[in-house]
Amino acid sequence: GAGVSQSPSNKVTEKGKDVELRCDPISGHTALYWYRQSLGQGLEFLIYFQGNSAPDKSGLPSDRFSAERTGGSVSTLTIQRTQQEDSAVYLCASSLGTSPYNEQFFGPGTRLTVL
Amino acid sequence: DQQVKQNSPSLSVQEGRISILNCDYTNSMFDYFLWYKKYPAEGPTFLISISSIKDKNEDGRFTVFLNKSAKHLSLHIVPSQPGDSAVYFCAANVGQGAQKLVFGQGTRLTINP
After folding, report:
1. What is the pLDDT of residues A29-65, one digit of tens each?
2. Which residue of B has its CA nearest to A94?
3. Distance (Å, rounded) from C-alpha B51 to C-alpha B60?
């Protein structure tokens, strides 16, 4: 299938280590979003990319979080010096554009556990 | 500050009956609302949406109702089927060309045979 894929599916790391999470959006989708879902919570917006525009980073919880999108396709979310509160499922989504009528298609997520 | 709230973490309904999932919001600037369905180990999938200019949208067994004065929306599933068992999230979008969705905490729906 040609859906959104994410890797790894699970990541266990030690507090203080850096992690990189990868997202491959649907081909041709110009918008890409990152969300996270902490235990018992809804999905929390982190960052989105639209084409060549500057990303909207307004949801990033701290400067330990960063993301990039190379060539308008693959995106990497990096968390530096991980903390236990970073443990969550990180979800990536892509859409044809950023109109409210453009459905966001989600990947299966990466479950991050910080020990 | 939880702008979108789903106060029922779980709901159990008998197969064939109506399932009603509720969602409340606080931000009057929200102008587009969506429901997503999520199975374990999968990402959420879009189910149905409604614009703030409408009060009802129907798609097959699924109907979403919006009460702007009460800042409340609900999802009705009728008749409920075992495959409807999943976690349902409501989400809201403030529009402005940026689809930054604000999600509720989710309601786990279980359909009993």
Report:
1. 999 999 999 988 889 999 999 888 888 898 999 999 9
2. B99
3. 18
